[in-house]
Amino acid sequence: MQNDDFLTATSMALRTILHLPDPRLRRQAAPVTEVTPAIRQLIADMAATMYAAPGVGLAAIQVDEPVRVVVIDVSEERNALLVLINPEIIATDGEQTLEEGCLSVPGIYEPVTRAAHVKIRARDRDGAPFELAADGLLATCIQHEIDHLDGRLFVDRLSRLKQGRIRKKLEKQSRLAM
Amino acid sequence: MTQVGAHNRYLDAALEEVVGARPVPARAAALIQELSYGVLRWYHQLAAVARLLLEKPLGPKDRDVEALLLVGLYQLRHMRVARHAAVSETVAAAARLRKPWGKNLINACLREYLRHPERAQREIENNPAAALSHPAWLLEELRRSWPREWEAVARANNERPPLVLRVNLRKNSRAEYLARLAAAGLDAAPTTLSDAGVILPQPAPVGRLPGFADGCVSVQDEAAQLAAILLDARPGERVLDACAAPGGKAAHILERAPGPAELMALEADPARAGLIGQNLARLGLKALVVVGDAGAAQSWWDGRPFDRILLDAPCSATGVIRRHPDIKLRRQPADIPRLIQAQARLLDGLWPLLRRGGKLLYVTCSILPGENEDQLRAFRDRRPDAAESALTGGWGRARALGRQTLPGERGMDGFYYGCLKKS
Q: What does UniProt give as GO cellular component (chain B) (predicted)?
């Protein structure tokens, strides 16, 4: 299995996930020009961090690396890792509303409306370009992660009223944590 | 020209698109730049002359013919071009618009102008908006704001500004850079207020400036260089530059030794935030560049207060018209109250982020009191924990709160600075 080869090829470390409202989540991630050993290590760490969380997707910026790298796994079995380097949406179609959550916004789940079908262009973990058409949860997840690369979080897409409520809830959580 | 006039586009962006898109010889690019800046600088005067020459005004579809007529008049009035050449070149250009009537019209108008220049002169003298080449509403604003200085301000707005540079003191001293300019055959002198500034009376393209690509130097007016100097960030401090794009002031804060511990450069527009990163990279500097709205801190602020905040607020840009003559066409009277409201919102949004004892430096490149001292006084009066922190120095003129430079004074752009301290 390609996934297993990949995941066992390097040692992995869990990275710390930044939480809203950390300003580092609001950076714009820079494109990857070359898949260096450091990028491979980052991908391995991100996959491990995502599976441990657990989550269905993670963007590098969430672990304080402002580069355009995303890992996604929406499978039930947690064995279908998708790595996207420099992903770009080239076409969208339709609309769907799914409940979203985010490892950087713990404990918050809200419905978000996004395109139902997306076509993307990206590079894989070896730097080879490919295109991918997605719908359902994968389409939502891809759009959610690409937002991260531009410093955007899913809560930005909610009403002001909801954003205010979420802010209060997060403030309460962080007070309890202290 | 049609793009700036009819579509409210930024001049430099439209020029970049037209000139940058196809290979244009350097000399032609320089001429295009001279014509576009010149026509916009003198637009209100040239348009008044054109109205006189045209028997009936041209419709919105024929803005291209009108623009070309203004280009012809500009050459005749402001450039050292032989008269017959100016007329024949403009008429030849009109032929390419595929409006044969336009060609004849431009030919007739320019020749009529040459036969009776005194008629145009009379028209200009009887109309202050044409004489000073400003929209009437803006002249009125200037007159109300500066009853003694308004005419001098309007004239200074029509002057070509000097090229002012900011030497990156992390990479070279000002004396070293002045020597490099002299070696490159460029005339330059040190500025008096900024310790990093260099002024070139003759503008030169950035590409000719030694060490520009290597980050030895940046282009920035001396009045804008006062921001980092007045902010006076100290080691160990956490500094926020709100509305930071394109990053000139943020870079200057970091170039000043020994510099703050941490600088966050905030910008609401993601595309413009990208410019900050590019500029800092060229200069070899690092800051945390954050995409966010300074008036809505909850989405990006981690709750750690700032020691210093620089708010370079969006404004009418009425202090930098000599550098951006398109402002005279793009700015509308209704923009001013909207800008004042936006500035107040930013002040209110940023103040809670400042630690007690910290300072907020408010900056605009406007010369309208409503955006400047009136704005800051109203803020101070509604915040019991805000007090003025006096800005000293023999520059500009003292206002009820803060200080103001006017365009052209000591060679500088028109900037306002006011500083508030939190108790």
A: cytosol
